[in-house]
Amino acid sequence: MSSQLSSTRQRLIQAALELFTAQGVIATTTRQIAEKAQVNEVTLFRHFGNKHGLLLAVLEESAAFKNLGESLVRRATPPGNVYQALKDYASDSLNALERVPEFVRSVVGEADQYPTENRRALGRGFTEANRYVAQYLGSIIEQGQLNTYLPAEKLASLLNGMILGYAVIEFTSEFHELWEGRDDFLENLVELFLHGAMSHPEESATENLFTREVADLPAGLVQEILRQARKLGSQDYALAYVLFSTGLSVTEAVNLQRLHQICDNQGHFLQITTPGCVRQVPVNQWILGTRYGSYTNNPLTKWLKSRKDNQPAMFINAVGKPISESDLWEHWQKWTEGKLTPQGKPPEIAQAQHTWCVEMLMRGMSLDDLSILTGCDRIQLQPYARRAREKAALEQATRLDQKSG
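-> structure tokens emitted (405 positions)
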């Protein structure tokens, strides 16, 4: 008898879930639920009291809601690839919400009519789902060795809140211009979390480039990185070449457009359009004693000449969209895999900029001129001046030692 009661209860919960998700809570009657579950309406009232009691059971007992956070996290990409893991989780969450638009509309529009117990059940459901997501974000943060500005629990709350907010806006309004579409929302959501709430240690180093110790890379290691980039394709080679020949930051590199290139036999330059720091930078033929072509024939010009697409961005991802900072980090990791600096650490992308600044000073550029090219003042550039003097002293000591022999 107990088993039969349990079966009846589960049929009613499943029938209610299907009808609530298909047509909303208010539009669903207890008669419809009873008919779908193949029981009489009195049986429904005996088990749940009324429709809101049945809704409470759906929220508390239905596997679709009880295990939502856990199932979404389980389907997401393993956290090794931070960008893809976040995007997959957000996309799967939207897929789940898009399967039940009427239920979402009901929850948003009718929640004030629900008893307190139902609203508490909703709150508990959100909290439980958030707990799984927080654990997942925690593993992403740990494995990606990311710096975060908020604890994982808060990040999970914000992430889920934005995803739910997107769904509510999409399900309840038309013709808004808040984003271009689903993909645009997902892309910007992930970028916001990667660069607003989280950051790679290397990214933090880039942001604090002029306040931390300078760590330029030796010529041999730079040559190895460029050789590896060349093996991976013409765009990889051009990207690595731009970083080491111009001293641009990650943000400046990914924002480059084809029209930002100025090139002739007399010189090769890039127009930088960063707000507050509009300037031109030279694209050097020589990098630490090795020549990489000419002003009109080098890894960057070859890459741009090979392009058959109409995308205005200078660098693109696998699907032909402008490259993101996350994409560039992944390229850098491929170029530097298995390589170590003299300090025994993997090379950081910010060190390409360090290397360029020190090399410019070693070639004889003044701090005032370097300030013009980088957009930084003399005080910010002092660490580079000290490092350049240190290298000059080492070179002089080596020359003196050779003369002594």
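Residues 116-143 form the longest helix (28 residues).
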